[in-house]
Amino acid sequence: MNALPDFPSSDGVGHASVIHDGPLSKPCTWEKRKDPKQPSQAQWFMKGHFSLHSSWETLVASLKADCPLCWTCWRAIRSSQIASPSDERVADFQATITYAHFDIGDDFFNLWVRLEGTGLKATRIRLNITKTSREIFEDIGRENPIPAQHTAQSAAEVANRWIGVCDKNHPSCLARATPPPDAKMPTRLLDLGTSDSTTWRIIETQQERLPYVALSHRWTENTPTLLQKNYDAYCDSQPDSILPQNYRDMLDICRAIPIRYIWIDSLCIIQDDNGADFRHEAPIMLDVYRYAFLTLMILWEFSDSTVFRHCRPSTVARPRPQSYKRSALTETGRDSLFTYLKNLVYPEAPVASQDSVSNAQKYAFVRIENTGSYNFDVNNAPINKRAWVLRERCLSRRILCLGNEELYWECEGDSSGPLIASETSPSGIPHMSRREGLGSLTCSDNGEYWNLLVEQYTACHLTFEEDRLVAFSGIARAVAKSTGDTYLAGIWLETWMQDLLWVPDRVREQPARVKPTTMGTQSMRLPSWSWLSFSGSIIPGLLVGNGEGPRISLTEPNSFKSDRFDCLALLSQTTVTPPDTEPYVSFHQAILQVRCLLIPVELTRITAMHMLPPSFRMTQNIEFNSTGLDCLNLMPCGEKEDDHAVFILSFSKPLNEQSRYFFMPLFLRKDKYQEAIKFGPDDKEGHEIIVEETVTNGERQFIRVGRWQEDMTLPSQLGPLISNTIVQQGIGATVSDMSKDITELERTFDFKMHEYAVRHASSMINFPRNCMSQLDQEGVNDKDENGISADENGQFGENLRGKCQEEKEQMMVDCVKCSDLPYFSNAQWSSISLVYNLGLDTTGDDLLDAFSDRYEVERALFMRDANTGRSKGYGFVVFNSSEGAAITKKYLDNTEINGRRVKVAYALERPRKQSNILDIETGMSSSGGYSQQGDRLAGEVPG
Question: Which residues form the RRM domain (predicted)?
């Protein structure tokens, strides 16, 4: 382990920093500091960077010497588990220790290593290293041995040890050993015979309860499938040899455990019937994995090779066992301590190299910080990038993970948390306490786990975009059944406010394909308010908002009371069409009816509507005179502004300059923690979404286009203005004066909102002073306790610029009467419909609905890409008469249809490059003009 930088000798004791030249003539600067958590303890910190390797050749030499540190680095950058460093040479390779410290109390080095080179994505890993002797290292290896290559028998022995612990000590895992009466068995299983059998056959279970193993894997070109033509043959005994090697490995593991039956999707679901059998089996998947005796997961698959990897056991990084005790520190005295430290890092003999190549005679316990090798070997495995597999992993009660140098295990564990283990850490990988399994998702504080799962799921890949809802349905069903909550299109209606606050993370590089109509797909309009409508990964609202949102009963929403939350909107109704649909897996439309305030918003000084910055501030000067504001006017600004509070806006779709946009407040939230980050304990920040107004068939509807959030370190700017608006407009002032067009639920909510607004408007509140321009000196104290005053514009003069940021922040807020602040004169209190987007997933049915109001439409077609199946953004409508085409063109050109502005022209007028477009459904030319079928209009929808 010469790969560590030199440690200062005993001469350095008591000095702030020392420079020592080690045997490799590598000067290294260290600094001694006190541990802030334990002032009596000291730590040594390396200053500057240290070159671990400056070439690929020295790394390879260190790998040949079985250095576990360098093997850990190699495993972090290799392309696969069977890759060889000689085949994947990285030019200009550098491995650099960018940070290091030695913790005397805990006896380990903490290293941050940066790996970089030509064509290599810069990788940073954090390692904990404890040097030890050969004897101790080998003793630990004998306690938890790793074979040079596993066999089915040895893998089953490891699995049975974990199964024994699980059956004895894990109540949550054991509870699923006896499924409830309504649990479904798989329709088919593979019968593997006795433990010495070499044949298998498919059986139909007839719902007879049988113990079975489930397989989770990726499909490859060699994946065997159950077809209509081989069904009868596969129901008779078939030799194992007709299956690829990885399937044979799974069958042999089952027989060695022993378990007689296994469920494999490719061999238990008919694959060539246009999806009919899959649609029958899909609802059962929840129970298939949930109640399997064990799930085998093949993390890495390579053609027809075995899942059992060759490895050099001494190169597998082993974390320091909890039982490990150092003996050198039993001596007393300062010199003996530093003798021990020197022996940790100094080699017994110098290595003749200009790089820090490890000595094969040195041993160390090496652990990747926080997760061990689990992230590289399991979480980052190709299989766990697939959306369908995430569902299987989450639903399974216990999993044996195969395909790496060592085996891994996951299960629900005991009351202390899930068990995530490996062969080198059979009792649990240190610091691994979270598993997004059903146990975590159904506990009392399941919100955090659900949001983390959604974040992970949206980053996964799907072959077909239409499967995004159904692939998540099994997990949603299980959580709903356990918690009693109501699920709709990706969100929980009890926490609908927080679930609407998601923000895009990144667009998917390779969009999923559209499923062919021959597979029985149904047209779904994904709602704009759900993360389902965004083709990419998202960050859920709870994670964005740094905490939870209000949880509201669906049956009695007006009974909600909280000291932390002020709810500003009501979910009054949900609509799913068709009414008899199964919303977990499919629907045509899903609409939220919300009672809320709509604040007109205008974004100014924008250079490109499709590339909006995240930070905005108000352009109006908020004056202390109770005046009305026409709208909320915002302009881009920096992330931090000395003179203005900042709003953080995140958009999920490009904006249209001709459209109208509104802020829709959802709730105000107060700090949860005892040490509040705001100025006063009652200060709150607002959480809202941004909506775009659309008109469809004369009906006003709204599309969610983004979310916004106020600065959490400041009191709310909009909260007081919202209360003043409700009071000024008389919203909910008296029950008898209210519109008869609203429901009793909405009427009661309006009245409660008025009561809240009156209380708030009459109270003294904290308000960011830098948003006020002409302050009433009687109503606002412009001096802080040090006598520093604001200028006539409510801002601080240049004489304050030198003061620290903390002092400036303390002087940004004044206590004012809420009702003396402005209100929004053009804000609207209404019940609105949050609907779907019309965009790249538009169908011909959408055009047919929009264009058939006045004249009979023969057919409508939306063009799709021949390779991906995704919409191109334009389509054709065929009328029965030229009169119908002409009048429809006149009335619908440059209007909005389902939230998108369309341009309508005769097909003959289309640009040259799009003038000869094939009708992909009928194969007919759509070059425009008149035809025997009628008159055509080309409708273009900007993507």
Answer: 831-909
